[in-house]
Amino acid sequence: MIYVTGDLHGDLKRFSAPALRALKKGDTLLVCGDFGFLWQGGAQEEKALDAIAKRHYQIAFVEGTHDNLELLRACPREEWNGGQVHRIRPNLVHLIRGEIFTLEGMTFLAMGGGSSDDNAPREEGVNWWPEELPREEELPLFRQKLEEHRWRLDFILSHQAPTNIDACVNRKVCDVTLLTAFLDELQRKGTFEKWYFGRYHQNKMIPPAYQALYDQVLLAGGEKKKWRFLRQKG
Predict the structure, then answer these.
(1) Ordered DSSP codes for 187-210
(2) How many alpha carbons lie under 13 Å from residue 196 in its C-beta half-sphere?
(3) How far apart (Å, rounded) are the C-alpha atoms in residues 34 and 9?
(4) CB neighbours (10 Å) of residue 189?
(5) Are 218 and 3 in contact (CB under 8 A)?
(6) Are 170 and 200 contacting, i.e. CB atoms less than 8 angstroms apart?
(7) Quick check: 7 and 132 in contact, CB under 8 A?
(8) What does the alpha-carbon distance between residue 216 and residue 21 come to, in Å, rounded to a whole number?
(9) Which of 147, 137, 186, 133 is nearest to 163 (CA)?
(10) Residue 11 — pLDDT band, cuts 50, 70, 90?
(11) Is it the case that residue 30 has pLDDT exceeding 50?
(12) In sequence order, which residues have a C-beta less than 8 Å from that of residue 4 and are 6 or more positions away?
């Protein structure tokens, strides 16, 4: 089974919550940014990552605005379920932005990153990285991968939401960046069942297909799977 949750911010206690304790071998947990366990490096973080490695399920995350992109780039790059990842532990990977993955027959687009609201007091290369936003030359590569799938996906995983959804959740107009402009393009052109995103520290459904996640853990496509089960049962 595939499950999705929001920002973890390096909080190991989140893995002790009942919803995550219920996950078992063969399950996958997807995290919508701000994983946070790779931030400053050092023995304490390595210890936390080793504790995560003891989980029997797979964990995969997109980057947010509180992830050390330099540390992530230093991890081995490899193919995982059809897309490129950084391998951190045997059961832990970072989903590289723009890659499309197939899990249990369902396609997931990883579109991590975002615009840091608090980057003014932060230091570039220490606790803030301009690569949180895509470069202009990356966008054609994203579009090429989406064209290969005819812009049809089952799920989208991001940290930031498209501008209109951002306004619904954040109650203010967000800055227009290369990322938000591309997310708006994806919203217009793409066909998808559900778009999951973190960033806002809220659990909120925005009809018809957008889900803000924080500490809630949801079964990917759970509503559709429940409908199929009830239909088969009936």
Answers:
(1) HHH-B-SEEEE-SSS--EEETTTE
(2) 30
(3) 5
(4) 12
(5) yes
(6) yes
(7) no
(8) 13
(9) 186
(10) very high
(11) yes
(12) 29, 30, 31, 32, 155, 157, 196, 211, 213, 217, 218, 220
Residue 177: C-alpha distances to residues 41, 70, 173, 183, 209 (Å): 29, 21, 12, 10, 23
pLDDT digits (tens, 9 = 90+) for 84-100: 999 999 999 999 999 99
For 194, the token pair is: 């559900």
Ramachandran region, residue 213 (left: φ > 0; alpha: ψ -120 to 50; beta: rest): beta
CA atoms lying within 13 Å on the CB side of residue 168? 15
**What is the torsion angle, in degrees rounded to the nearest 10, for the CA atoms of residue 62, residue 67, residue 70 and residue 76?**
-40
Sheet holding 83-89, edge to edge: 77-80, 83-89, 92-95, 58-62, 28-32, 2-5, 218-219
Which of the 8 DSSP states describes residue 34? -
Structure tokens at 50: 């080793």
Confidence of residue 233 (pLDDT cuts 50, 70, 90): very low
Locate 202 and state its tokens. 């809220």
Residues paired with residue 100 on neighbouring β-strands, in sequence order: 109
The pLDDT value given to residue 223: 54
pLDDT at 180 over 90: yes
pLDDT value at residue 229: 36
